[in-house]
Batch of 3 targets.
Target 1
Amino acid sequence: MRFVEKLQNASRKNNSLVCVGLDTDPQKIPKHLLREEDPTLAFNQKIIDSTSDLVCAYKPNMAFYEAQGSRGWESLRKTCSYIPKEIPIIIDAKRGDIGNTARMYAKAIFEELKGDAVTVSPYMGEDAVSPFLEYEDKCAFVLCLTSNKGANDFQLSEVEGKPFYEIVAEKVLSWNAKGNCGLVVGATHPEQLKRIRQIAPSLPFLIPGIGAQAGDVESTVKFGTDENREMAVINSSRGILYASDQEDFDGAARQEALRLRDKINLHRGR
Amino acid sequence: MRFVEKLQNASRKNNSLVCVGLDTDPQKIPKHLLREEDPTLAFNQKIIDSTSDLVCAYKPNMAFYEAQGSRGWESLRKTCSYIPKEIPIIIDAKRGDIGNTARMYAKAIFEELKGDAVTVSPYMGEDAVSPFLEYEDKCAFVLCLTSNKGANDFQLSEVEGKPFYEIVAEKVLSWNAKGNCGLVVGATHPEQLKRIRQIAPSLPFLIPGIGAQAGDVESTVKFGTDENREMAVINSSRGILYASDQEDFDGAARQEALRLRDKINLHRGR
C-alpha cells in the first residue's frame, strides 16, 4: 500500500490528524519505569497503548535513541515493531547525504527499522533524496520551512526573487514522480504554510511546532490541510509524552492527545 | 585539547592531510572476513592498523553502520575506541535538527561514540548547530558546498547577490566564537573552494570528492589549505578501503593511502 493511502486510512479510522512524536528521554520519563529492563521501550509501549486509537501516525525521533547508543537503537527497533501495523511510522531523522550514503540511511530506516516514512534535508539536492524515493510505498518528507528560530538564517532568504522555502517546495514537487514525497512545514509560520499549501495542494505535510513551540492550531488546520481537510500530520511530542511524570502518565498522555485531536477536528468541522 | 590543535598535531606527526573515510560495507569487504564475529570491526581494525601512521584523521560514515542496526552501532563504537587516541575522529553524520534534538545527536556523537568532530547540515540554521558547538574541544564541520551533483540544486543558487554557499560560509564564521567550526567543501568545485578559503582563511576544511568522485588533487591542495598548507582534511573512502578485495586488502589500502599522502604532499612542497 502506498504511504498516502496508509496515512489516509489511519487518519480516517481514528478521525485524527494527530501524530505523537516519540522523543523519549530517559531523564524525563516517570521514575517507576527505570526499574524496567528497557525503560524507553516500556514508556513507549504505554504511550502507544493509550493513544493508538487517537492518532494518524507516530514519529520516533532518532536522536533520542542514538543518544543511548546500541541499546537505544534496540529500543527504537522494538518500538517500531510494537506500533500497530495500520498506523504509519515516520522516522524523524533529517538525513541528507550523497547517493551511496543515502542508500544506506534508507536501508537503515525502511528495512532495519521498518519505518513507513522519513524526514530528509534538502541541502544536498536531488541525489541525496532520490535513494529514499526508490522505495515506492514509503515517503520522504523533505524539510521545507522548519519551526525553529534558525529557520530565519537561510530558509527565509530570497533566492531568485522567491523565498528559499518556496524553491524547495517547487523542487520537491518536481521529484514527486512516484507520488511519495511530503514536506515538513512548521506551524509557527502560518502565512508561509498557506503559501506552501498553494504550491503543493495535495502533498502530505508533516507539521511540527504546535505545543511546546507555540504554533497556532486553528491556522495550522486552516492552511496546512488539503482541500478535504486531510494530508496534514500535526505533530506533538513533549506536550503529550510528558503530560504527567506520575504513574498515570499514559492516562494523562491520552487526555492530551484526545484534547488535541478534538481541538484540531473542531477546525476541520468534524 | 582543542580540535584544531589535535588535528594539527596528528597532521604534522604523520606529515599528512589524508583522512580515511570508514564507509565500511559488509558487501564489499574481503570474503574471508565474514567468518569473523564482527566482520565490519575486523575490517576497520586492519585498515586502521595499516594506515594510522599515514593519516591526519579517520571519518566513519554513520549511515553504513546504521544500515546494520544495533550491531552496526556496536561495530562503530568499537571502531572509534580502536582508533589511536592522538588521531581525530570525524563522525560523518550530517545531522541538523532543532535545539533539544541536536543536543541528543551531540550526546550520541561526542559522548556515546567519543567522536572529536561531526558533520552537520546548515539548513535549519544556528540553533541546529549550536548544541554541537557547546562542546568546546570538539568541532562541527558545517556543509557548505558538497561534492555531489545535487549541490547544483540549492547550494549554487544566488541569494542576496551571492552564491548560497558563500552565505553559509559567512554565517558559519559568525558562529565560530569558540573556534570550533569547520566547513565541508567538495573537491569537485576548485574555483569555489578557492573563494571559500578566502572567506574563511583559517577554518579547518573537510574536503571529500577526490578519488571515486574525481576531484583534482592539485587544485584541492592549492585552494583548500590555509596559508601554511594545513587545515585541509582531504578524505578518501572507497579508493583506500576497497583497493583490494583479497586477503592483502590492508596492504593495498596502505599503498593507496601512502600514494595519496605523497601526491598531496608533492603539491604542499614537502
Note: The first strand of chain A starts at residue 18 and ends at 22.
Target 2
Amino acid sequence: MPLPSKLRPALPVGLRRYLPILDWGARYDRATLRDDLIAAIIVTIMLIPQSLAYALLAGLPAEVGLYASIAPLVLYALFGTSRTLAVGPVAVASLMTAAAVGQLAAQGTPEYLGAAIALAVLSGLMLTAMGLLRLGFVANFLSHPVIAGFITAAGLIIAAGQLPHILGIAGGGHSLVEILGRMAADLGSVNLATVAIGMPTLAFLWWARARMKAWLTARGLSDMAAGTIARTGPVMAVAATALAAWAFALPAAGVAIVGDIPAGLPVPALPPLDLGLWAQIAVPALLISIVGYVESISVAQTLAAKRRQRIDPDQELIALGAANIGSGLSGGFPVTGGFARSVVNFDAGAQTPAAGAFTAVGMALATLTLTPALYFLPKATLAATIIVAVLSLVDFGALRRTWAYSRKDGAAMAATILVTLGFGVEPGIIAGVALSLLLHLYRTSRPHVAIVGQVPGTEHFRNVERHAVVTAPDVVSIRVDESLYFPNARFLEDTVLAQVAARPELRHVVLMFSAVNEVDASALETLEGLNAGLKASGVSLHLSEVKGPVMDRLQRSHFLADLTGEVHLTQYDAMKRLAPELTARTLAACRRDTLRAAE
Amino acid sequence: MPLPSKLRPALPVGLRRYLPILDWGARYDRATLRDDLIAAIIVTIMLIPQSLAYALLAGLPAEVGLYASIAPLVLYALFGTSRTLAVGPVAVASLMTAAAVGQLAAQGTPEYLGAAIALAVLSGLMLTAMGLLRLGFVANFLSHPVIAGFITAAGLIIAAGQLPHILGIAGGGHSLVEILGRMAADLGSVNLATVAIGMPTLAFLWWARARMKAWLTARGLSDMAAGTIARTGPVMAVAATALAAWAFALPAAGVAIVGDIPAGLPVPALPPLDLGLWAQIAVPALLISIVGYVESISVAQTLAAKRRQRIDPDQELIALGAANIGSGLSGGFPVTGGFARSVVNFDAGAQTPAAGAFTAVGMALATLTLTPALYFLPKATLAATIIVAVLSLVDFGALRRTWAYSRKDGAAMAATILVTLGFGVEPGIIAGVALSLLLHLYRTSRPHVAIVGQVPGTEHFRNVERHAVVTAPDVVSIRVDESLYFPNARFLEDTVLAQVAARPELRHVVLMFSAVNEVDASALETLEGLNAGLKASGVSLHLSEVKGPVMDRLQRSHFLADLTGEVHLTQYDAMKRLAPELTARTLAACRRDTLRAAE
C-alpha cells in the first residue's frame, strides 16, 4: 500500500540517500569532532576486551575479533543512517557463528576460520540485497516476544558455555543441555590455577558493572568521571590478569592464555569460493542477518528517537551489509550494531558516525601495538568478560510480563526459550518465527465480525450483542472488522452461510465494509461464490460503506455486475432501501429525544 | 478472537457433532432413498473408469483405484457433513502421490505400493488430528490464486504425462520439462496400434464431454436423459476399446493393457510400519492433506450453499481423515472430495451421504464381478479418460483475471504455475504458499495510515490528503487502519518518528485507534518505546477512540501508567483538549453551514 506523500519520511534522495556521510559530513565542525573523539576513546577501551572475548566465543583466534572491529566500523560510518550506533562483534551473533560454523569444521582449523569469514561475506551480501530491494520488512517476521526470548536463551547458553574456561576444563556444545552435560562429565579435571584467576576476575567485573560507579561517586567523583572509570573495568581486568599470568608463570600451572596474536593490520583477502560451503551456510547466514538486523535497528531507533533523529531501515540494511562484507574481506566474522556499546557511545556524546570511524582508528592502533602485551592474557579473563556482559541480556521478567499481557505472545516466547535452550540457536529462532507466523495467521483468519442493528432514532449501526438496536427479520447486516484476504476469506463465507442456514426467513445479506481496507483475489472469489450461492437459495447480497480504493478494484472485476443486491453508500441507505418500514418507524419518533440526550 | 455467540454456527453438539449420520439418518425416508440410489448409480458409472485411471496416474495397479473407492466412501458417509460431496481418487492427489512415492521406490515394486498406502494413512492421521485440534484454518495458508495456479499447472502436467500412454512410448517425469524431454527423446518408437486405439478414444471422449449432450437433445432426448447418457461416455469407451483389444488381439501388436486385476474385495492390512519411510513422506503427506482438503471444502461449501445447508470445516477434516485412513488400511491410496463427481452427484439429486455409501456398494460389486472384463482394457483408454478429465482443470483465463484485479495475487499465481511446471508439484505448492505468506506479511507490514484533521464545523476527523480539514501546528493526529501486531509494529514507530523529526514545533502525537482491533505484545513494546522516545524529545503521546477489548488488555500492562499523554474517548475530545482554540474557532462559525449543506 503506498504511503500517503505527507507521511513519507523526509529522507535525502539520490547519492545522499545511499551515502549519508555526504549529508552530515558537509556540516562537520570542531565541536562535533571533539564530542566524537571523546566517545570514540571510551568505546575503544570497551571494545578491545570485548572484541577478543567475542572472537573466543565464536571459536576463532583473538585477532579475528580485532579485525572485525576496524573495517566494519569505517564502512558503517560511510553508509549508516544512525548517528550513534556502535557496530562490531556482538555476543549473540558470535554464538550463532559458533553454532553455524561448528557443524562444518573443527575449531582451530583453517576451514573453521574460512567458514566464519564466508559467513560474514554472505550475510553482508544478503543484507545489502535486502536493502537494495527494500525488503526491510522481513525483519518483521521476528516478533518482539520471539526475539526477546531468543536473546534471553542465547545469553544463558553463552554464559554457561564460558564457565568451562573459568574452571579450566574442556567444554563445548551448542545447547544448554549439551553444555551442562559435557561440563558435568569433566568436573573432575578442574584446574585450580585457572579458577584462582577466573573467579576473582568474574567477581571484580560484576562489581565494576553493578557497583563501581556508585562506589566512586560516593567517594566524591563526578558522575561522568565515575561512569567512565567504571567502564574501564574490563580493561583493568585484562591488564591485571595478563600481568599476573606473566609474573606468576601461570601458563605452566595449566592456565590457558591467548598466546601469539599476529601484529599488524588485517590483509584484505577473498573468502573461500566454495559453492558447496556457501550453500551449507546460507540458512545460518540468513538467520544471523535477520537477528543482527533486528537487534541493530531496535537500538538505533531507540537512540535516534531520543534526539529526534531519523534512521532509514532500508539504508541500515545496506550499511550493515557493507560492514559485514568488509569484515569478511578483512579477515573478520559477522558483526552488527551492539546494544551496550551503542548506549555508551550515545551517553559519551557521539554526534556523528565519525565516532565509529575514530573507534576503528583506535582499534587499528591497538592491533598494531598492543598484541604483544596480550600474549599472557588468560582466556578465563575473556570468559569472565563475556559472562558479565551477557547476563544483562537474560530477562525472565519479560516472559512473565508478556504472558500476563497476552497468552499467545507468552507461549511463542516460552517456546523460543525452551527450543533454544534444548536444541540450540538455529532451531530456537526457527521455531519462534514459525510459531509467531502460525499464531498470527490463526488470529487474522478469525477476524472480529459483528451483526449490527440500527440504534433507534439515529443513522448509526452497532453490534447487536452490545447495544439495544433494532433489526429487520429478513435482513442481516454483518460488519467485518478486518480487511478481507486469503487468511480470512473462508471464515467470512462460513459466517454468512451460518446465518443463512439458521434463518430461513432471510432475504438480504448486507456486508458493511467500513473497516475493510482491502479485498484480495481470494476474498473476491469468496464473495463471488457467496453471491452465487446466496442467489441459488434466494438471498441477495449487498455491500455498504465500501471505501474508494476497494471500490476501484472491485470495478476491475465482474463481481459488481453479477451482484444480486446493490452497493449502498452507507449502511443507513441500505436499511432505508431494504427495510423502509423499520427505519421510518424508529426514526421520526426518536430523533429529537436522541439529539437532546446527545448534547 | 472468540466469535460472538449469535454468529456461532448452529452445529450439533456431542456425539452428533462427530457422527453427522445420527442427524440425517434419523430422518431418512423412502423418497430420500430413491433419490440417493439414482445419484449413486450415475456416480458409480462415472467412478469405475476414473478409479482405474487415477490409479494408473499414481503409478499404482488398477485395483488400488477400486479399493480407494469403497471404504473411504462409507467412512465419509459416517463422518462427513456435506450431503453431496463425492469422495474418492482424484487427479491432483493422484499426481501428488506419484510425485511423492516416485522419489522413494520404483513403480511396480511392493515398496512403491507400500509407500502409497502409508501416504494415505499418514495423510488421514494428519487430517484427523487437525480436525480434532480445530486447525482447519491452516488451509488458509493456500490463497485462491495459489491453489488455482497449482491446479492449472497440475492439470497440464497430468495431461502431458498421459500422452506417452496414447502414443505407446515410455514416459515418466514429474515436471512438464522432464515429461516433454523424455517424450521427445522417445518419439521414434511410437506404437501405431496404440495410437490407432488411443486417438479415436480421446476424440470420442472429448466429444462426449463437450458435445454429446447437445447432440442428443437435438435428437429429441430429454435434458436429463441426454445428460445421463453423455456421462456414460467413458464407460462406453472402456467397453468398446476392451472389446476391440480382445477382438483384434491388440496386445500382440504392442498395445499395453490393464491385464490381471485380482477379483474380490480388499483385505484390511496395516501399512508398512517403517519410521524412516514415514519421516520421508511426512511433508508430501501434509501437502496432499492440505491441497486435498482445500479442494474438497471448496466444492462442499459451494454445493451446500445452493441448498442452504451447512458444512463444518473442522468435522470435514475428521471425515476426510477417516476416509484416508480407511483407504490406506484397505489397500488404497490418498482420496479426497472431487469436484466433477460431486457436481454430478448433486445434479443427480443426491440428498444425503448415503448416496456415497451406495456408490461404495456399486464399486464393491464392480470389484467382485467386472475385473475379468477389464483384462483387455487398453491403458491408452484410461490415459484418454484422464486427459479429457483434467483439461477442464486448466484455466489460464483465471491468471489473466487475477492479474487484472491484483498484481500481487497475479504474481503469486504465475510463480506457482511456473515453479510447478518447471520443478514439479511439491516445489510448486511450497513456492506458492511461501510467496503468498511473504506478500501477505509485506502488505500487513505496511498498513494504511492517515494524518487526520477536523472537518470544519463537525466532530469528524478525516484524512488531510483527501479532505479540506484543519489541523493544529503542534499536534499531529494519526489514524491507523489496521490492528497493531508484529508485522507492522515497527512501521508505526517509523511513521510517527518521521513526523516528529520533520516537525520541530510538534508537542503532541495522537494515535486514533478507531480501526485497531488488537495490540499484541510486539506492538505494545513499540508503543512503550515510542512513548519513552517521544518523552525524551519533549513530545507527549495520546490515544483516542480505543476499543474496549484493546483497553482491557492495555490495562494489564504498565503502558497506560507511563503514558505521557492521555487516552481520550474520542478524537474530538482529544483535539478539544490539546488545541481548544482550533475546535472553538472552527466549530461555532461553521456548524450551521455544514449542517445545511449536509441535508
Note: The two ends of chain A are 39 Å apart (CA to CA).
Target 3
Amino acid sequence: MLAVPSAPKAICRPSFGVTNALFTHFLPNFADKYTHMDRAKLTSQIFQKKSFLCVGLDTDMRKLPECVLGVEDPLFEFNKAIVDATADYCVAYKPNLAFYESMGSKGVKAFERTVAYIKERYPDQFVIADAKRGDIGNTSAMYARSFFEENDVDALTVAPYMGRDSVEPFLGYEGKWVVLLALTSNAGSADFQLTADADGERLFEKVLRRSMEWGTADNMMYVVGATRGAMFADVRKIAPDHFLLVPGVGVQGGSLHEVCKYGMNKDCGLLVNSSRGIIYAGGGDDFAEKAAEAAKALQMEMAGELHAAGLA
Amino acid sequence: MLAVPSAPKAICRPSFGVTNALFTHFLPNFADKYTHMDRAKLTSQIFQKKSFLCVGLDTDMRKLPECVLGVEDPLFEFNKAIVDATADYCVAYKPNLAFYESMGSKGVKAFERTVAYIKERYPDQFVIADAKRGDIGNTSAMYARSFFEENDVDALTVAPYMGRDSVEPFLGYEGKWVVLLALTSNAGSADFQLTADADGERLFEKVLRRSMEWGTADNMMYVVGATRGAMFADVRKIAPDHFLLVPGVGVQGGSLHEVCKYGMNKDCGLLVNSSRGIIYAGGGDDFAEKAAEAAKALQMEMAGELHAAGLA
C-alpha cells in the first residue's frame, strides 16, 4: 500500500482496456523483487521450531496498555514488541486489516510498517493479511496488487462467495498464497456453510472441491475454524494435502487437540492462530512478557502434538 | 477512517471484555452526529430526479486523464470533477475501496476526502462504500465503526458467507444501511450462489430469506447483478420491498430494461450502478463533460422506464 507505484510510468498507465490481470505480467522481475515462502520452507520452519503457531495481530487501539499510548505510532510499537517477544515460538503472523483500517490512514501505515518490520527482522515468518477480500475480477486484481506488490505479504484471506473469477486474480503471484474461507469458527458459519445440496454436499465442501481446480496445495490454504472439531476429518477427505489456517483456539473455545487429531497431515498441514489469547495476555507494562509466555505455552502444546503424531 | 477517534477518551478505551457491539451504544448522540438517508428520502430523490442511477467511483490511478495527474491528490480531484458533473443525473455514488487501498494511505485519504466532499456539497446523495466486508462479530464491528462512524457513509456492501453474526454488527446504526451480496454480476457467481439445497432453494435465495430475519427493508439492500435478467423475478418473490443495488449495466453487458421489467417495485426499489461506462466515458481534458453526457443518457433511459411503469 505504498503511495508511489514502483513500476516505471509507461507500465503504470497502460492504455484503456488493458486488464489488470495482464498488467501484472508486465511487472519487471516480480520473482526477484518480492519474498517467497513456499510450502517446503514453511514446513521446514514448523519442524525446526516444533510450532505451527500463528499469532493474530488484531491490535485494537482501545485495548493497548497505557505504556505504549504515548508514542507516535502506538499500533506499530505494540506490534513490534509483540513480534520481538513471540517470534521464537511461532511461524506466522496474521494482522487483521479491520483493526488497522478503523484507525484511518494512520492505521494503514501502522499495518504497512508492521509487515515491513517482520519481513526485515524475521524473514522466515509467514505473513498473512487477514482481509477476507473478494470482488469481481478487475477489482480483486486491484486488491491483489495492493497486498502482494505494495505490501509483499505472503498470503491473503479471501472470501469465496463470488466464485472463481473473484479468487483467481490472487493466484497469479509466484510464491504468494490465497487462504480461502471454507468453514469459519463463528456461530453464523452454520447459516450457509453447512447447507447441503441435492447430492448431500455441503457448501464448505463444494468450496473446497471447486477451488482445488483453481489453485494447488502450493498456493492455496483454507480457513477451518477450531470450533469445528471432528469436521476436520471431512475437510481432510477432500483436501488431504492443503495447509489449513485454524482460528478459534483460545477465546473462541476450540480445542487444539481435536484440531490436531482430525486435521494434521504428514507435513503438519496446520497453522493454528491465536490472537487475543496472546496479544492481550497481559494488560500492563509486562504485556510483551505475558504474550511470550502465552505463545510459549501454546508452542509446547504443539510440540507435544507433533511428537504424538510421530512428526517430531 | 479519520485518524483521531471522535469520541471522548473514556469511551474510546472501555475495559477489556466490553464488546464492540456494546461499545457502539455508548457513543454520544450518534443520531445527531451522523447523516441519515432513510428509505423515504431516497425514494423521494429518485422520483424528483427521475433517476435511480448510482455512479461507481472505481477510480483507477492508471486510467486517469493526463490533465489531473499534476495535482497533489489526483484521485480526489478526478472524483470531485466527476461528482460535480454527474450529481444532477444520479442519486447515489459508490466508491469501491479496492481502487483507493491499492494506492496506500494516500489512496485511503482520497476516499475519505471524496466521501466528505459529497456529504458536504450534495447531502441528498446516497453514499455506498463498496468494500464487501464480513468477518467474525468483533471484527465486523471494527469495520462498521470505520465506515459508519469515522467516514459517515450511508451504506456498506457486505459478504454473507460467514452468516448472521458477521452481518449484524453493521445493522446497529440508525439511518445506515447494509447492502448484502446476493446474486452478483460476474461469471463466478454461478459457482456457489446458484447451488440448490435438497429443497430446491438456491444459495442466493437462502441468503435473501435468512437475512430478512436480521434486517428490514429500511436498513438492508441486496446486490443483484444486471446480468441476471429474469432472475430478478425470483429475487422479488422473496424480497418484494427491498431496494436492490444493481451492478453490471454497461461494460459487463446487463440490460437496464430487463432489470426494470423484473426488478422494479412501487418505490422503484432499484439503484442501478454504472462505473467504467461513466467515469471513463472520455479519456482527455473533457472527461467530466463526457461523464455528464453518459450519466444523462442513462438518466433519460431510467426516466423512460419509470414512466412506463407508471411511476413518473
Note: The radius of gyration of chain A is 19 Å.
